[in-house]
Amino acid sequence: MSATSWEKQKDNTFVFKMSQPIPSYLIALAVGDIVSADVGPRSRVWAEPCLIEAAKKEYDGVIEEFLTVGEKLFGPYVWGRYDILFMPPSFPFGGMENPCLTFVTPCLLAGDRSLVDVIIHEISHSWFGNLVTNATWGEFWLNEGFTMYAQRRISTEVYGSAYTCLEAATGRALLRQHMDNTGEDHPLNKLRVVIEPGVNPDDTYNETPYEKGYCFVSYLAHLVGDQNKFDAFLQAYVNQFKFQSITADDTLGFFLEYFPELKEKGVESIPGFEFDRWLNTPGWPPYLPDLSPGEQLMKPADELAELWAADSLNMEAIEAVDITAWRTYQLVYFLDQVLQKSPLPEGNVERLSNMYPKISKALNAELRLRWCQIVLKNNLEAEYSKVKDFLHSQVRPWAALCTLLVHVQFITHQYPQVLLCRAALHLSIHPSTHPSTHPPVCTDSGGCPDPGAGPCT
Predict the structure, then answer these.
(1) Which stretches make up the Peptidase M1 leukotriene A4 hydrolase/aminopeptidase C-terminal domain (predicted)?
(2) Catalytic residue positions?
(3) Which of 124, 161, 197, 335 reaches 20 to 30 Å from 23, CA-CA?
């Protein structure tokens, strides 16, 4: 359970205690055959016996490093322990930041530590979300926007600005894709969403509070103009509102109080960047943080994607690019560019698959997801089995892949609907996976073609 302490009594009775006040959505319990292993002075991993060795190997030593950097930036970690519970494959989220015990997807067990940095996001919630919480789901960005900013501050300290900017560029691309799908003027693309009849609060869980929220927090940092001063503000903000649920007005009011010189300048009303516009107007962020430090990693990936999209492959140039040292998000960025350029000329994806088994045979879930999307968008039937295997093994990719199969952005003259339907029917695995699929995923992937429904119309 998400609690500061627990003890086992007789007759398999367990008693838990949470000594800190928390919002009700962070109360979580898990029941099963679960064992644990220490991975740090205040951390252990929990999992089913078949996963515990892999979990220990993957996370031994790394959690403490992230926690230590977080404390340096944002103040004391007040929750005591930071444990991780690896959930069954049906768990439909990357992670859930329950205090003291984060629940995570087994997708993070890549076997090579290539996804351990994902846990930085959940650790960042220890200050933003768990300690200072949005009062309503209509201002979810107060949790996620600040957490994305905190995640990237920790990442910059640990991995450097180039890698962090590359990861942020991937997030920006997801925001662009989301707004293209929904339309920029969709009311859910505001930071302050009005939860009224007909609006499902679950729908606020999208890229906008995360990435547009991150852009707004970055804009506040830009107004301050000094990273150390803004870091100090974040510590003061956490200390001011810890163990409270607050609104955006509380946050921005405290910001202007903390920086009276900015209030005197009227920064809340700068034309085009008004705080009211940020909160209440849907659409693309008025301000985008500078990601140019990531260009040294993005440029080679962009150039390689261009080579693979050419009608005539320049294999000499392709073979001159060594991707063996590329880290996860550089590979993810490369695959996103390939996906954007797909469908590629005939035969190119097959050759790409053979050239890069590091990608096409990866165990890393982020790479597997994007490779499966490329397989589907290019109608590469020879590798449909990899898509089937991925969907059988993990529930998280269901919504993303089903969106690819049916969403209008891919149903164009370049990629006719019959091709999508043929791919969807070929992936006749829905009946076998449906009983173990989490309800939100069933809802999100409701557009997936039913293999027994007959031809698409």
Answers:
(1) 296-429
(2) 122, 210
(3) 197
